[in-house]
UniProtKB/TrEMBL annotation, chain A:
Organism of provenance: Sarcophilus harrisii (Tasmanian devil)
Protein name: Vacuolar protein-sorting-associated protein 25
Keywords: Cytoplasm, Protein transport, Transport
Gene Ontology terms describing biological process: macroautophagy; protein transport to vacuole involved in ubiquitin-dependent protein catabolic process via the multivesicular body sorting pathway
Cell compartment(s), UniProt: Cytoplasm
Family the UniProt entry places it in: Belongs to the VPS25 family.
Source taxon at top rank: Eukaryota
Cellular component terms (Gene Ontology): cytosol; ESCRT II complex; nucleus
Gene name per UniProt: VPS25
High-level lineage: Eukaryota, Metazoa, Chordata, Craniata, Vertebrata
UniProtKB/TrEMBL annotation, chain B:
Organism encoding this protein: Sarcophilus harrisii
Quaternary context: Component of a complex at least composed of ELL, SNF8/EAP30, VPS25/EAP20 and VPS36/EAP45. Component of the endosomal sorting complex required for transport II (ESCRT-II), composed of SNF8, VPS36 and two copies of VPS25. Interacts with VPS25, SNF8, TSG101 and CHMP6. Interacts (via GLUE domain) with ubiquitin. Interacts with RILPL1 (via the C-terminal domain); which recruits ESCRT-II to the endosome membranes. Interacts with ECPAS.
Any one Gene Ontology BP term: protein transport to vacuole involved in ubiquitin-dependent protein catabolic process via the multivesicular body sorting pathway
Bias (Basic and acidic residues): 1-16
Protein name, as recorded: Vacuolar protein-sorting-associated protein 36
Database matches in CDD domains: PH-GRAM-like_Eap45
Short name of one Pfam family: EAP30
Compositionally skewed regions (Pro residues) per UniProt: 18-28
Region (Disordered): 1-61, 68-87
One of the record's GO molecular function terms: phosphatidylinositol-3-phosphate binding
Gene3D superfamilies for this protein: Pleckstrin-homology domain (PH domain)/Phosphotyrosine-binding domain (PTB) (2.30.29.30), Winged helix-like DNA-binding domain superfamily/Winged helix DNA-binding domain (1.10.10.10)
Subcellular location: Cytoplasm; Endosome
Keyword annotations: Coiled coil, Cytoplasm, Endosome, Protein transport, Transport
Annotated ranges, domain GLUE N-terminal: 94-231
Amino acid sequence: MLRPRPARGFLPVPGTPRPSPVPEVLRRAPEVRSKRFRFPWVTMATSFEWPWQYRFPPFFTLQPNVDTRQKQLAAWCSLVLSFCRLHRQSSMTVMEAQESPLFNNNKLQRKLPMESIQIVLEELRKKGNLEWLDKNKSSFLIMWRRPEEWGKLIYQWVSKSGQNNSVFTFYELTNGDDTEDEEFHGLDEATLLRALQALQLEHKAEIITVSDGRGVKFF
Amino acid sequence: MQGGERPRVSEQRIWKDPLPPSLFPPHSPQLQAAAPPPPGGSRGAAGPPGGATPSQCGRRPVWRLRGRGERDWAEPGPGPELRRRRRRRRRRVMDRFVWTNGLLEINETLVIQQRGVRIYDGEEKIKFDAGVLLLSTHRLIWRDQKNHDCCIAIPLSQIVFIEEQAAGIGKSAKIVIHLHPASSNKDPGPFQSSKSSYIKLSFKEHGQIEFYRRLSEEMTHRRWENMPVSQLMQRKSGQEPGRIRAVGIVGIERKLEEKRKETDKNISEAFEDLSKLMVKTIRFKSYLLSMGIANPVTRETHGSGTHYHMQLAKQLAGILQVPLEERGGIMSLTEVYCLVNRARGMELLSPEDLVNACKMLEALKLPLRLRIFDSGVMVIELQSHNEEEMLASALETVSEKGSLTSEEFAKLVGMSVLLAKERLLLAEKMGHLCRDDSVEGLRFYPNLFMTQS
């Protein structure tokens, strides 16, 4: 049963379509509140802290030495995840990725070749941070935290606030006032879905359909 | 033709045989008077007046029409006395044959044999009726089928010219063999003298085509000249050294061959003196030593195979010691190849032999060894040389400069680019360096992935 919620201005009217993939105005990132860019990194590139490898030219060549390669790929994975986290990029196409400053260092005049990008993405997928959204492997979902980790966090909060055996909508979890201080506040729906699916597997939650979307019941 | 109109059978037969004009001496009146018909010529060509036909000997006109038993009844021929004397005087072909036991000599090989062959002396049938004809590389042997002891042979060197005669009605195919006159010193044969200078072999049981082919092959190759069988045969083939009859193309070829052999002999004789001189003069030897190698290991001195490669390896170890030390203990195999061949001068080494010899260096516990890198590059290095030690210094050099390409590194260290690249690649393999591959080229950096967290 849905708990009665106070009416708030910013809550969307039930029945309106969900917003486009353009990232929403977020309270946590006031500087972009008014700006809606398709590629937010244009403004945020300067604030992002690039790791030392980004300025090391061999970083952009796949190393033949096995041990060196392992270190290199690990560095790439962490870079991709931190980049996507900061820029709130949950999904991307491979073409976008190729053009982004993530794999292109203009100052150094180096770019990671396509085959190596594929290898990095494959590595992320194996780790559980990436999921291909289509069969052609042209676009992917990137989760800087693995779905299981998200699920754990959500369940922790639910248990902590004593709201077990209650039902929430997806929107409530990500954009509700109660979750404002939580890490998973502002999480994109796809990641949330996967996180809840992971919880479902652990029998800690169950995804249900409610009148204005989807909801979840925690046990 | 005097007298009657009766056509002479043998006369017609004569005109069927194409006779090369070169058989006749150039100024024989017979030739001028009556040129024989061209080979395969028309039957309709008129014969010479009087029906005279010169004999193959070309000495004087002989009435070949006169076979034994064939008489021109119109003409008063010479009496029996004269005939007998004439017969003895005339050189004939069957006297070239010698009795033989039919066994082949050591260098002689059998080419082909054919049964059912009959020999004709000129146009005449003789007692050699049915026999097996054997062609060897040196001789033509005929053995009687009924009486195996009766075996005659003629050396192939006696043959001037051969031709085929197709089979006709009631006649089997024949091969006509024109022969040289017999020498005086030959072994006894079945006939003391012979009427004509050609014989015919009649193939009653066929096989003439193949036999003719093989015989002409043997005549072309003249293998009996290269493989002297016995003194007997040699004597026969060596007879009349000055009298090599230039008979058509065969003669020209023979002359050329003679000339070539002469030249060859002269050259080898000349060089024999030179080599003797070279060996004896100490000055020459020391000059060779200063240039490089005095007595190179060659296939002549040491044969081929493992022993050769072993000796070669030992010699290489001797030559390469100093150059290797000059070049820092390591040299690529191509450099070695150039150096060694330059030192050897005349007796050059093939790349294959060099590689095989180098592979044995380690096994023979010589102070050098062959090393093959992952990329396939082969180098010779001193046993005392340790590439791994060099890597530490390479890393230092690269770290100093931040990053280096193989060319820059080669220049700095003073080694060839190939070896410099190999060293950098080895350092990368060991994890000391990492690579930066871009449009600018291949650069090597110190491996900060490992050293920096």
